[in-house]
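Lecture notes, continued. The same structure-token format from the folding unit now serves as the input rather than the output. Read the line below as a description of shape only.
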């Protein structure tokens, strides 16, 4: 089968489209013909092998998993003997840790849910990696309640476009922070207020929020805290940072400061699970959440998709179609 493979760490040029063996299907596995696989900043980090502190997990000298891509949507080809929930022909979406930029992936059945009926396969392939952290940040970490004032920084990006919609579905009054070119987009997905960060600094506006989801972390922690209500929660969700330790320095600082304030300052540590995949499917089918697709690329241009997302200016999701 065809796949996008990386033998060494580096820039998107190290990616090559090549033939690899079909994966073996275990008893609890589902073989999926991939139709769409979104890429996200995390794929770009593994491509480059940064931060170095993550190399024991990524692979010390070269990536442990050669095929990039995490999100997926497609059709079930075959199932293992212990799989009851899916059968050949089912349309599914979910995630894989073995690389989705390929014609086929083999995943445990718990990594999948039926594709939401009302969206395209490209949209379905763009959900898990970005919508699930948005859900976990707002529902679980910040415990957003109806009437809460919620600020989403990086509201126009892969995570942010889901976060704005999920915060609205939780009944919050939502403010999105984005650049001028994305103001209309962020308003169109339901934000009650939009702050254009090229014109206004949200940390100096005098307004305060019960919850802030910061997907960018361009502002110092001390400044962001000025915009957080006493007793409010700041969720740090940028994977960007130094080449050596990534965001760990900021996370440590937030942990220490949290000990001396009523505000909760915490990083978001992601764990995908099937139960929340179903929650997302229902939010999508109810019309509360619609994935925003920025661009699509054929599999042969996956390196361009990675370069685009790695630059940090996506408007919603970049999706590779297979
Ligand atoms: N915890 C997890 O498991 C998890 C999962 C997925 C992603 N993440 C992390 O979450 C972060 C965001 O991911 P993403 O997929 O949303 O990234 P993305 O798609 O690259 O989006 C970034 C967005 O931020 C906007 N932006 C840039 N500078 C900004 C600023 N100063 N203020 C406000 N907005 C700004 C960009 O728009 P303009 O260029 O127009 O400004 C862009 O739309 C990444 O660092 C990623 O590593 C974490």
């Amino acid at each position: 089968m065809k796949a996008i493979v990386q033998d060494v760490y580096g820039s998107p040029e190290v990616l090559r489209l090549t033939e690899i063996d079909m994966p073996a299907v275990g008893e609890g596995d589902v073989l999926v013909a991939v139709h769409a696989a979104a890429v996200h900043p995390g794929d770009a980090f593994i491509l480059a092998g940064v931060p170095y502190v993550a190399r024991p997990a990524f692979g010390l000298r070269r990536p442990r998993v050669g095929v990039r891509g995490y999100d997926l949507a497609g059709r079930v080809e075959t199932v293992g003997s212990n799989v009851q929930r899916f059968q050949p022909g089912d349309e599914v979406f979910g995630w894989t840790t073995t690389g989705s930029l390929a014609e086929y992936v083999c995943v445990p059945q718990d990594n999948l849910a039926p594709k939401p009926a009302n969206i395209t396969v490209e949209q379905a392939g763009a959900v898990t990696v970005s919508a699930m952290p948005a859900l976990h940040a707002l529902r679980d970490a910040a415990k957003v309640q109806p009437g809460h004032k919620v600020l989403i920084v990086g509201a126009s990006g892969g995570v942010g476009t889901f976060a704005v919609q999920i915060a609205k579905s939780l009944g919050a009054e939502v403010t999105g922070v984005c650049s001028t070119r994305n103001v209309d987009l962020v308003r169109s997905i339901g934000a009650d207020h939009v702050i254009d960060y090229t014109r206004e600094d949200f940390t100096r506006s005098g307004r305060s929020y019960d919850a802030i989801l910061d997907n960018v972390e361009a502002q110092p922690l001390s400044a962001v805290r000025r915009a957080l209500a006493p007793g409010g929660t700041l969720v740090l969700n940028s994977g960007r940072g130094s080449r050596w330790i990534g965001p760990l320095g900021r996370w440590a600082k937030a942990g220490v400061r949290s000990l001396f304030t009523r505000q909760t300052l915490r990083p978001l540590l992601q764990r995908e699970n099937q139960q929340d995949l179903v929650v997302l499917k229902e939010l999508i089918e109810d019309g509360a959440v619609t994935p925003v697709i920025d661009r699509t690329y054929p599999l042969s241009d996956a390196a361009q998709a990675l370069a685009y997302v790695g630059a940090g200016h996506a408007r919603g999701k970049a999706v590779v179609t297979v």
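Point for the exam: The chain has a mean pLDDT of 97.
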